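Review form for a predicted model. The reviewer records the input and the model, then writes brief findings.
Reviewer: anonymous (R2)
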Amino acid sequence: MKKTSIKNPSPIQVFCGEACISNECNSNMINLSNHSYDQIMENVTTRFDRFIDTPQELPDRIVDLLHIASYVFCADRCASRGKRDSLSNASWSRSWIFEIPVLDHDFWSSPQVTNALSASLVFMTGDKSFEFHFSKATHEPLKTEEYQTSLFSNNGLNIQRGKNIDVMLFSGGLDSLAGAIDRLNTFPDRQLCLINHMSNNRTIRTQRSLIEKARSLKPSNTFLPAQYGQPFVRAVLDATIAL
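Model under review:
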């Protein structure tokens, strides 16, 4: 009987912002941009205003972080993991190559940062690999547009470093629920910050119900971040600033 070889899919190339080469998006190449320029059309929106009243005052490194997160998320949603009835499931774990312009090029190009970023995303997504190539951004609309200053500017940058707090992703599924319960029982003296992503309204009711139940069992060390993940972003900002 002749053996059938299963070919691994080619890496998916993702060109972002100024690095975009066209408006095309297919199984092997994705172009994502948060602003229109030349013949490239905007197809990604990053709602900075959900995090801070004056996003123009955010440090360059934080602006880069939010752009990178937006591009990775959108690319993930654009790329198929294969057919649902696939027997081999060879397409499930993908390989990525990202080309992203950034403001703080020296920071993001350091091996320590790129390796940590790649390892984190491989762990979170189950994909084979994430390869990042950062270039120096020459245009950032957020930094060049005019805005009105106020007495309350920079209110989103006053990030307080928490003590004895662990951060976990929480989808509301069995795996994340079991992990959260295990963490609470293993470290009863530490607080647990559960982070959820809500792409629709169908899961948030279940998530809230499970969190309220967890609160009743461990009222002193469990809390749920606000909707849209604002505290998660601030926790990431805190970690990034610390680097």
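Findings: The chain has seven helices and seven strands.
Further findings: The longest strand covers residues 95-102.
Recommendation: see findings above.
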